[in-house]
Structures are given as C-alpha cells and as structure tokens.
Amino acid sequence: MNLSVKHLLGIKDLSPQDIELIFTTADNFKEVINRPIKKVPSLRDTTIANLFFENSTRTKLSFELAEKRLSADVLNFSASGSSVSKGETLIDTVNNILAMKVDMVVMRHPNPGAAILLSKHIDATIINAGDGAHEHPTQALLDAYSIRQKYGEVKGKKVVIVGDILHSRVALSNIFCLQKLGAKVMVCGPTTLIPKYINSLNVKVEHNLKKALEWCDVANMLRIQLERQDIKYFPSLREYTMLYGLDKKLLDSLSKEITVMHPGPINRGVEITSDVADSKQSVILEQVENGVAVRMAVLYLLAANIG
Ligand code: CP
Question: What is the share, in percent, of the chain residues with pLDDT greater than 70?
Fold first, then answer.
C-alpha cells in the first residue's frame, strides 16, 4: 500500500486510510527502535536535507534520528549562520541544496504556506515540519498515534486542546487528524486566543477549563506562543495560569482519570505544573518516543512514492 500524497504538507491532504497506513508502518518501526540493533537499510540510497528556518529541539532531533535509523544520508541546515542573512530567497537556498542531489526536504519555516510554496517550485519530496501558525502534520500524527497506543483506537475519544489555539499549528493539525480518525474535539482557552474561524471546523468551544477537563478523555495542553503575539491577548501570564493552567489539584478533582499530553516545549508553571507533567497520567515522553517511529513511517512511505 502507498500514501495518496507525494509530499506531507498538512494533515488536510491525508485520507483516514493514509493515516492508518502511517500508524501500522510506525508500529513496525517502533518494534525496530526498541531492538538492540535499531537501524534498518530501507533508505540507504536516499539523501534527506533538514532545513530549519525556525528554532526546534524535538522535531529536528526526531527527524534526524528517524532518518539515521533508516540509513539515509542526512544534511542539516539552520537559517542562523547561513547565507539567508545575506538576502538569499527560500527557493534559491533550497535549489542550491538540491543541486547536491537531495531526494527529500524536511522544512520548518516561520511563514504559513512555505512548504506548499516549496512543493510547487522544487523537484523533491517535501515534508512540512511546521509552517508558522498553519500546520505541523507529524506532531498531530504522533499525538494521535499516542492516543491510539493508550486507548487502542482514536475513534470516539474526546480530546480537548487547551491554550493558544489562535497561534498554534499543532492545534489545527490535531483538529484535522483527530476528526479524520473519528475523535470528538473541543478547544479551550480565553476568547482572544480562539480563532474566529473555529466555528467552521466543527469543534466544540469551552472557556471553562474545569468543564472542558470533565468532558474529555485526553487533554492536550499547549504553550502560549509569545513569539507569534504582536499584541497582548490576556492581562498577564499569572492570570492565564490561574484560569487555564493545569495543576495536580485540578487534575485530582476530576471525576475520572484523564490522559495529559503536551507537544513541547513545556513552560512549567504556566500551562502545566511540574507535578502534572511528570505524573503517571502524562504521556509527554511517550509522545516523543512515538515521534521517531511515526517520522520513520512518514519518510519510508513517502520515499516509496519518489518517481
Ligand atoms: N513540538 C515541537 O514542534 O517542538 P520543537 O519546536 O522543539 O520542534
């Protein structure tokens, strides 16, 4: 079986069958990365460039590890310290890298739509590793995969995404992915951080965190994306934490045990306290582990579509 897409630009383009194929392939790779010898030769003749025009810890390391576990040749590029500061365009930068015979490009970029633009001008397979506030498809895939691992299936599960929905590519990709898999999705946060277009996405909206947590099976806690905020959306971080921060007292007051997720980076003491992040209800580190297997699956399946 093959994916229906040549690039991974967003979850919006994937069918539920594509997502299931990624998950079953990731199951196999998860078994591989837990063996004493964690490497397979699947992408031995494939060269992959990781282009990061914006900061990253998890996504960058996770893709690099996934590529190395598949035996690909890997090029790493960061915008800081490159000729981007001398005025080179995105297309010129990438074309110069492709002249070195690169097959696949993994790109993070601050501009929404950057990966789509690249796919229209570049003859290589493009994987979007996060484009501004638009999409972060592999994060949504690993989040949904982690829910599937915890509950056996995603269908019918109730997931609330809490926090800065307005500036979050993780929220949008999660909404698309969870809905394609049959989950029910709610967003929760202050009115100013919920986008006006939310009504067109068929998700529930709740401004009271306690009510949202009582409704859900899984709470995905997002950080406040201060780097994307040009104006003040709430009076202070302290007030935000009082209304939308998840602490142990609130978690323990719920009538059932829920699962806590976070895509990282965590701002401990703001959207989530340390005792919640490190509690047995948290699957934050499982998400990171699953990220490698899911990215191996995406790379492997897209490489099979290179014509
Ligand atoms: N979750 C996520 O995208 O983290 P990084 O910004 O560290 O890659």
Answer: 100
Residues with CB under 6 A from ligand 1: 56-59, 130, 136, 139, 263-265
Residue nearest to atom 5 of ligand 1 (CA): 56
Atom of ligand 1 nearest to the CA of 59: 8
Q: What predicted TM-score, i.e. pTM, was given to this entire model?
A: 0.96
Long-range contacts of 22-28 (CB under 8 A, 24+ apart): 22/141, 22/145, 22/294, 22/297, 22/298, 22/301, 23/141, 23/144, 23/145, 23/148, 23/294, 23/297, 25/296, 25/297, 25/300, 25/301, 26/145, 26/290, 26/293, 26/294, 26/296, 26/297, 27/293, 28/297
Q: How far is the CA of 170 from the centre of ligand 1 (A)?
A: 10
User: Ligand 1: distance of its center to the CA of 265 in Å?
Assistant: 6
pLDDT of 289: 97
Span 225-238, pLDDT tens digits: 877 777 788 888 89
- Of all protein residues, whose CA lies closest to atom 3 belonging to ligand 1? 59
